[in-house]
Structures are given as structure tokens and as C-alpha cells.
Amino acid sequence: MSGREEFTPEPTPGAAAQLLPRHQASAAVADLYARAGWTVVVQDVVPGEHLGFFRDAVTTGPLYLVVLAPTAEAVAAREVGRPEDGYDGGWTVGLLDEELRARTPRRGLWPDTSDLTPEQAVDAVLGGLDEPRVAG
């Protein structure tokens, strides 16, 4: 297999196949740092059924899962002020929001950060750390 394929709302088999090694690599690096004594945070967008594969790839615990879940309207308003469009490959704010809310397993902590500052979002996550524990 060669060449990168964009993961779109209707991914090709090649694009879907590229996600598993990507998630396995992220999990392996996270495990490596965790075993060395670091507290590890992995930031990614892991939609739909792929969340389970990613979660299963992490072997070090405890494992906490946090999905920052502002409304699609809040995300769209934030995007207006950004210099670059963070959505490519056919994704829109609405399509990604639908993928996350309708097809992603509701595991861990899902705070609505629509009206929160970054500092308040951190407080919401830290205040709910018992809830998103999903392993170990």
C-alpha cells in the first residue's frame, strides 16, 4: 500500500485501512510514555466505530476518555474567526458533529464546552475525571 488517502465522510477502503495503524501507533507511543512514568494525553478525532479499536489498542491504565462536545453551532461560530479551515475531505462541522453524536459510542466524559473558556473546559474535565475512566 502506498500513498495517503483522505478519510472522508464516505471513506474508501484504503482510507479506512490507514486509520487502524495510525491509532495503533498513537496508542503504542502513549503506552511507551506511560510506562516511563509520564501522564499522557492523546488528542485526536476518533469517529464512530474507530473509537473502540483505538481504546483497545491502549494497554496502559488507568485510561480516561474525554470527548469535548460543543454544539455544532458553537464550533461553526469558532471556525469563522480561524485563519484556516480545519475541515477537509468533504467534512463539515455538521457532518462531523453528526458522526460523533450519532455513531460514536458514548463512553467516558462528554462535556458540552460550547460556552466555556479553555480554562473552564480544563476545570470541567478535571472535575469529572472519575466519570471517563474506561479501563484499569
Mind explaining what this structure looks like?
The chain is mainly α and 136 residues long. It has one domain. The chain has a two-stranded antiparallel sheet. Helix 1 packs parallel to helix 2. The protein is globular, with a radius of gyration of 16 Å.
* Major sheet characteristics: 2 strands, antiparallel
Q: Give average pLDDT, whole number.
A: 88
Q: What fraction strand?
A: under 5%
* Strand order, sheet with most strands: 1-2
> What is the CA-CA span between the terminal residues?
35 Å
Give helix and strand order, one letter per element, not per position.
HHEHHHE
Runs in which pLDDT lies below 50 for 5 or more consecutive residues are none
Task: Tally the beta strands.
Answer: 2
Shape: globular
Number of domains: 1
* SSE-based structural type: mainly alpha
Please work out how many helical segments DSSP would assign: 5
**Helical percent range?**
40-55%
Question: Measured on Cα atoms, how large is the radius of gyration?
Answer: 16 Å
